Predict the 3D structure of the following.
Amino acid sequence: MESFDYAVIGAGPGGYVSAIRAAQLGLKTALIEKNERLGGTCLNIGCIPSKALLESSEHYHTVNHALNDHGISVQGATLDVATMMNRKQKVVMTLTDGIVQLMKKNKVTVFHGAGKLTSEDTIAIEGENGTEEIKAANICIATGSVPVELPFMKFNGSTIVSSTEALSFDKVPEHLIVIGAGAIGLEMGSVWARLGAKVTVIEMLPQIVPFAEKQLASALQKSLQAIGMEFHLGAKVTGAEDLDGKVKVSFTDKKSAEHEVVGDVVLVAVGRKPYSENVGLETVGIQRNDRGQVNVDDHWRTGVGNIYAIGDIVDGPMLAHKAEEEGVAVAEIIAGKPGHVNYDVIPNVVYTEPELAQVGLTTAQAKEKGFEVAEGKFYFRGNGRALSMEAGDGLVKIVADQNTDKVLGVHILGPRASELIAEAAVAMEFSASSEDIARTCHAHPTLSEAVKEAALAVDKRSIHS
Ligand code: NAI
């Protein structure tokens, strides 16, 4: 039986990054993956293919709706969904092939098959050619998550689907009904709305993207309505009925009035749940909580000392970059280094148009934690670069501690918010004050000047508003 210093079960961003870091630190490392391709949900059926389709659909929308003001007129633009899907798949293949190369470069041994703990230091790998067993001094479980299903609306792969199918429709649905206005619902809703589908979003809570600052969430809702998306907020879905290839969804609104909407496909995007079935947790006595998450201590150790767990199967936001950080930390701890993740500085992005990005606390969360809050806002309509891009919707909001001026949170709705948030994350990682950001010279004309202006606005001295 081959022996390793470290074995990781699950080759998503948490697992494969952890394997690379361990190998860099000199550990003999194995990576076990049950799917044919490495990369997990994020690369194969999540973050990456959705970004590819968002990019394509944005081009289509721009050509059809946003070029006239530039003096460019395009007639007869057509859509070939198959080509769009092929491009998406090429992006996925390039990146997942890239991970195979990274494993080779770092001398990580990859096993294809389903890994199952058979004892505290042995894993059985059930692959196409039978079962083999390996020994590992340390083990990390990084098996990710799967979409949550509504009990009265089971996935059927054609009319009631998860994000996986919504990334691969072979034609633009006439009417797409989306349940849940979180990241998946809004991103996939945007893709198909831009390509011409009627999109109706039904959300249980009173605002879209419930974790976001209220003002930014409502502004985003307006922008999405402008491309034709329709929203029912505070709505409770009560049932779904098959209607000869179409689906009728029933829901009650916030005043308990009953409604029905008929669409040709329903995307259920009400969250994801940890996936750690059939990994043998019970065999070694690893506990899960009532949400199905694996219980770990501050160092990602399960109750079994040499077995760790990271990513979507443990507590915290279900985000690829959070899993990556945890994977690196675990590899470093095993190699005798002080691995650490700063959970106060995990950016969160929704790739709509405009994009929504945030890091740290909202005003409400900061107040709940007892901070006296100072806020600074700057609207992109006062930013030269944004206006040149015809992208003046949105704003940057900085939440700071009134007493120390330390930045507690940064919230951005606007062009390239996904990139701009990195400046905020770096500033917060270094415990910056809003004055630190305000006194940093930002290139002109750039979108990042809006971040500087919002920082100036905390002290009520924004220049351009
Ligand atoms: P989510 O948790 O982001 O949003 C789910 C939404 O559904 C919430 O607004 C919730 O209030 C609503 N909801 C729940 N039950 C409902 C019901 N019965 N009827 C109507 N609405 C209901 O989950 P989502 O969008 O499915 O994404 C899953 C995970 O994947 C999340 O953790 C998300 O952060 C992550 N993800 C991240 C992306 C990114 O970083 N850009 C992109 C896509 C997913």
